[in-house]
DNA sequence: TTATCTCCATACGCTTCAGTATGGAGCGCG
DNA sequence: CGCGCTCCATACTGAAGCGTATGGAGATAA
């Protein structure tokens, strides 16, 4: 007759810590990702943490690797060959980041990249993700008949835009943000519209 | 006959602290901007700091306001009316951020924006800078004969790009980065080339 | 039952950091 | 001379935060 309501999880594994850490990362950034804070959130103490992880950096790298796997899985899924629908896929990649529902994902993205600016190990992992994403997106442009160099330029512009726009605060600038974002997506994807090869 | 070599500065004012803080901000980010670290860099102690500033946040806001003034001064200067050269000015605005010499400025920019993501007071200041920049850049497109809505889209794309590309790590992606950046600048500024109004 | 292994709590030492309190050196000024 | 003002040093408290050491509860297996 023991209550189990306040004992929802009896055990903790590495993945549970990584999941919770990713949540804190989205909310507070790297600087707010402290082991004691994290332990309190998981209703345990540091003793547990240092059993699963060597130190704080061990957790950070684990979070980053987990993030990398997810991002690569996502972009692969979003850009798998679907002949005739490549243009839709390009727009979808743009929209995914603009969507308010993916705000959490973008917060993680920005936190990770801010860390990577000053940490070479993190930078190497971000570089892998960027490389896969750029190549996948370029393949979509190429499939639309866009020549190689222009495809490279446009996919780079695409990703730089979605990250950069998340750093800006522009409510006062334009009243119709929806139209603005649609037009920008057109600018990025435009030549893929109905232009034949070359 | 007292040596003055190791006594280069006898006094410190608020601006000296702000300048040093801006330097640390560029190198270490907001999280690395601590008063004792800053004091050590200025060869003084905290006692001096807390005479010039109420607390750490007082310094951070002062740094941010100083940054704001400089950025607004810069963009005004870069976009003052120069009939017939608006297109050059647009390219110049893009190039200024890509230039390796302005790496320090971009580091500050990114550090400030990462802070502004979670601090509404900082966010308000960044919003002011964004608004001025976007309106100045839009005026250049308008002067080139680009219609209003497209001018809005393109200047937003411009700034999102320059910030976003600074967050990416893409050495492996393309061998000719110079060409890539040139082409992207063309994509952003293109319709302003020789297109008449409408 | 006893031994062992897993997972976590507790307690500790150490460092960094924010902010305060207080004194003191130097300097102008009456 | 002495007074007061400016600017900074020193010394302190207290709070976080990282990492370690150690024990203990609970399960498992012999």
TrEMBL record, chains A, B:
PANTHER family: HTH-TYPE TRANSCRIPTIONAL REGULATOR PKSA, HTH-TYPE TRANSCRIPTIONAL REGULATOR RUTR. InterPro entries: Homeodomain-like_sf (IPR009057), HTH-type_TetR-like_transc_reg (IPR050109), HTH_TetR (IPR001647). This is HTH tetR-type domain-containing protein. Signal peptide: none annotated. Pfam families: TetR_N. One of its GO terms (molecular function) is DNA-binding transcription factor activity. Keywords: DNA-binding. It comes from bioreactor metagenome. Residues 11-71 form the HTH tetR-type domain. Gene3D superfamilies: Tetracycline Repressor, domain 2.
